[in-house]
Structure to design on (204 residues):
């Protein structure tokens, strides 16, 4: 009885492993936060279904290759390996198109949705607006510079501002040439301004 349960559990794990692999790669290559365990299980099942749907095509292509080069017989172990190869490829492809917002962009052009594939509006703006910024700090100071790194979550993380300069109340800048950058906690930032053009010395 226990042996049968163990065998069934191992078989189920082998069946779901490719789906979990795809989900692991997706969340490792994108900025989407990991959902609760139950939702991750559902996603793994969906990925598993997609992998199983692609498996016959992969098998057919391997059999065609096998007519020219002997790869050995198609076995259960070979099927598991093939599923993992498909899982890795699927995870990379889905992550790539998610990061590029390709699929949602196609849907937006056809009026199916107004959403993006990015995890939040904050992330979407920082991804699309590749510009210098002005951080308005909660203590009233304003910091201008290039956001080399910025937090994925608007409630936690840090900005790394390169080529920083302070902006005084009179609008003049105070350059900090001795610094490569400044690390600013996002909790200290009141709001962020995106600058259309790079400030020049003539702005001083």
């Amino acid at each position: 009885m226990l042996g049968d349960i163990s065998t069934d559990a191992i078989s189920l794990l082998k069946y779901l492993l490719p789906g979990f692999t795809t989900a692991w790669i997706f969340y490792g290559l994108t900025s989407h936060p990991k959902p609760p365990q139950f939702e991750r299980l559902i996603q793994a099942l969906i990925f598993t279904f997609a992998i199983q749907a692609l498996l016959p095509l992969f098998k057919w292509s391997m059999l065609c290759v096998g007519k020219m080069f002997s790869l050995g017989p198609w076995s259960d172990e070979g099927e598991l390996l093939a599923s993992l190869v498909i899982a890795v490829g699927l995870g990379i492809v889905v992550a790539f198109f998610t990061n590029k917002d390709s699929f949602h962009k196609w849907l937006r052009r056809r009026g199916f949705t107004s959403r993006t594939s990015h995890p939040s509006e904050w992330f979407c703006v920082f991804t699309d607006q590749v510009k210098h910024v002005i951080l308005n700090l909660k203590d009233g100071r304003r910091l201008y510079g290039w956001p080399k790194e910025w937090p994925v979550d608007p409630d936690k993380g840090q900005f790394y501002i390169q080529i920083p300069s302070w902006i005084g109340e009179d609008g003049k800048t105070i350059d900090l040439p001795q610094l490569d950058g400044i690390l600013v906690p996002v909790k200290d930032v009141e709001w962020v301004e995106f600058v259309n053009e790079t400030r020049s010395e003539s702005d001083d």
DSSP finds five helices and six strands in the chain. Strands lie at 133-137, 142-149, 158-167, 173-175, 181-185, 189-194. The CA atoms of residues 158 and 185 lie 4 Å apart. The longest helix spans residues 37-66.
